[in-house]
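Chapter review: from sequence to fold.
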Amino acid sequence: MPQRISVRAPATSANLGCAFDCAALALNLYLDIHVTPRADKEVTVQYRGVNPERVPTDDSNLIVRTMRRTLEKWHKTKGFDLE
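The token string follows.
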């Protein structure tokens, strides 16, 4: 059943300040996310990057919250492993 899905999200410079599209910054940073569906409703989060103590691994994690809402809208009640 498990089919791993991977997503690469690019970093953003949007929080550097208000430049009104006059300034640019090229970043070579990404967040690689791997999701494996589960047969039950359990959700697990494993983070192996920098400052792991700062990344929530419970339902307060923004990626977990987003995925749960999306699955609810699709009427899916499956859990997932997030790496």
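Two observations follow directly from the output. DSSP finds one helix and four strands in the chain. The first strand starts at residue 5 and ends at 10.
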